[in-house]
Amino acid sequence: MTTTAPPRPPAAPPTPQPLFGRVTGRLLRWWRQLTAMRTALVLLFLLALAAIPGSLLPQRSLSQTKVSQYFTDHPTLAPVLDRLYLFGVFSSPWFAAIYLLLFVSLIGCVLPRAVEHARNLFSPPPPAPRHLHRLPESARLDTALAPSAALDAMEEELRVRRFRVVRRDGRAGPELSAEKGFLRETGNLLFHLSLLALLLGLAGGKLWGYEGSILVTEGQGFCNSFQQYDTYSAGPLVRTKDLTPLCVDMTDFRAEYEQNATAASYTADIDYGLAGAATRNTTIGVNHPLRADGDRVYVTGHGFSPTFSVTLPDGTAFTDVSAPFLPADTATMASEGALKLPDLGAGATDQLALQGFFAPTGVMQGGVLVSADPRPLDPKVAIFVYRGYLGLDSGLPQSVYSLDQTQIDRNRLTKVGAANLSVGGSTTLDDGTVITFSGYKEFAALQLSHDPGQVWVLGAAVALLAGLLGMLLVRRERVFARVGPAPDGGGTVLSIGSLTRGSADTGPRFSALTDQVRTALAARADRTPEPDAAAPSDRGRAPEKEIPTS
């Protein structure tokens, strides 16, 4: 008679995980992926890749003029690049996103490793593995010493090599564990922590830093105010009252040239000081900026400011009026610019302006003035004189280095004269106004920068280099040893194994260690006295009585 088992009840469906648990688990997986070292390396590579457009394309924070010129030269491509924030790479949302993700990834990756490394520093070396012969480097040494004496010789050699040594009584016999090279992991952590500090310093410089550029002609100056700069940029946390009240006056500028007419150095004599304080004088150059109260003033370039004298028909004379002309060709310092004279006309529609070309060493080629040398050997200027309405009070911004072309196109500015002039030459307009080219002055392109994170970045860079050297030059080594009786019972066998990280060629170092241990074992064995077999044993004998003598 057969019996059938009752049918099994259907399996209960799995209980769905709560929504909170699913969300938490997914966030934890994302966090582990973000804080992995591979992710940090990928983000670091992306950050370096994202900085390339900032080096190849002009940036608004450095030169608005070059950005405008790029729009003029590439009218189709420039708007597309602008929508991608490629003219302001380092302040773009996508660059900030990569920066912040790298920052978070480094924190989540480095801090747990730092805690684990601190724990390992105060932990003894691990016990010796059961099979020492399976390690990358191993050896067996025979000695006549006792097991404890053999381990003493091994420990002495390891301590001479600056190993941390721990002796234990293992299951397979007395053993020894030693390790050194913690500076390798310390250097690794220092490298990554320095990289984190470097990012913090750069972020602090962007948040609390500012810089401005201005062209200063000899005999003029400026104060640290955003309204006086030609171009400026400031971090989002910078307020106007945070600016250092520094004022600079340039008394003289010198440009020295090599024999091949290339500029060798730029130096400027300046007077500087805080508002309301005594001024001091110094000389600054391209690689020798002024450092005062956390601000730095650099010389970034130079040029020429032609000077003119204007004599009106009624005899009123205006002397030494000038404006900086921007270099159009740095090889010959051929420069272009404009001089606006809104106060010389009788009314708002009777203003004067000069648009010109300055050649430090002027020569005529085919009736056109060109510059043959950057040195001011024979200065000449070609000017076009306009009369009319300049539009300075229209409320619309315009460049101080050129005339408003829309005013010319609308015939609100009319050309009333043109001339090529040498120093001392003049031209007379239709109404009797005389314009004389009286000479030139030199100007310096100065940049004032304030970066509170600069010292922090320098320290982080030095620490980063030190950590990199520790990673490359230090090896992490572990050495294990165990003693046991020889198979024939006539001595001791010392088994040695080594495990080295960060180096492929470990054979010579291990061979040198085993040779020195072998020599030390032999030397100890020679110093150990052997028992004399011929000498009678005193064990079990009663002490002899001393016989008294009379």
Write a structural description.
This protein is an alpha+beta fold and 550 residues long. 31% of the residues lie in helices and 33% in strands. It has 3 domains: 28-115; 132-181 and 475-527, Double Stranded RNA Binding Domain (2-Layer Sandwich); 210-450, no CATH class. The protein has helices at 19-34, 37-50, 52-56, 64-73, 77-83, 93-121, 147-160, 182-208, 405-409, 454-473, 507-527, and strands spanning 137-143, 164-170, 173-180, 210-217, 221-223, 231-234, 246-257, 263-274, 280-285, 290-292, 295-311, 317-322, 326-329, 334-341, 351-359, 362-365, 368-371, 380-388, 413-422, 426-428, 434-450, 476-485, 492-501. Strands 4, 6, 10, 11, 12, 20 and 21 form a 7-stranded antiparallel beta sheet that branches. The chain has a 5-stranded antiparallel beta sheet with strand order 1-23-22-3-2. The termini are far apart. 26% of the residues are buried. The model is unreliable at 532-550 (pLDDT under 50).
Number of domains: 3
Treating each run of at least 4 consecutive H or I residues as one helix, how many helices? Answer: 11
Fraction of helical residues: 25-40%
Distance between the termini: 117 Å
Overall geometry comes to elongated
Strand content is 25-35%
The helix-and-strand class reads alpha+beta
Give the beta-strand count: 23
Write down the Rg: 42 Å
Estimate the mean pLDDT confidence: 84
The main β sheet shows up as: 7 strands, antiparallel
Low-confidence stretches: 532-550
